[in-house]
């Protein structure tokens, strides 16, 4: 078999790649398996590019979709319409991922899948439409996942607050009304979270380490006690893995 590269083939594609695809399409399961295995790095690279992040085999659903799409490309490949198998396979992978992102993002909405590979009417000559569609679908998918993560964080945070006799609804009432007072309270929480002795006092005793704090901050005990719930709440966020809530606090500084 020849391994010379041709101008109309994608980088890394050999002259016999299309022929192998046709053999697999015609029922040669061993060739199909070999083709998929050989081009798994290509599938991972394409999937990562469309997803906008690094994906891992066996961990991310996008990889499974990419593999199935590559397998589908073998079944649909037609040398009369496609000069390069890998170019065709890349298109199938990208569109299947967009289908997936759109489906995951469109809760309660009717989704029109980009499932036809007979025509290219849905893509401008310069690829602008396709690029914008892919970008929009990926962003919507990420936003949906981000919203789900935020919801889960709030649920877990609420449970943790309950251990301290604080409800999530209390936070509105106990939040210092003046911005400077709120920032000072957050600074106190930051000091506690970065000090192992103070942090242990909060976690184990469910109270502020007032004596230790009076040595570190220029804030009266009366003020610290008044802001107790708020300081504890912020401290819990800073000591946790609540990335979304941490970002919210960071913006307040």
Termini separation: 64 Å
Instruction: Report strand %.
Output: under 5%
Shape: rod-shaped
* Biggest β-sheet description: none
From N to C, what is the helix and strand string? HHHHHHHHHHHHH
User: Measured on Cα atoms, how large is the radius of gyration?
Assistant: 28 Å
Number of helices: 13
> Helical content, roughly?
55-70%
What report would you give on this structure?
The structure is a single chain. With 253 residues, this protein is mainly α. The chain folds into 2 domains: 17-145, no CATH class; 163-252, no CATH class. Helices cover 66% and strands 0% of the residues. The chain has helices at 17-25, 29-38, 40-51, 61-76, 85-105, 128-162, 170-174, 179-193, 196-205, 210-216, 221-226, 228-238, 243-252. Helix 1 crosses helix 2 and helix 4 crosses helix 5. It is rod-shaped, with a radius of gyration of 28 Å. The chain starts with 16 loop residues before the first helix and ends with a helix.
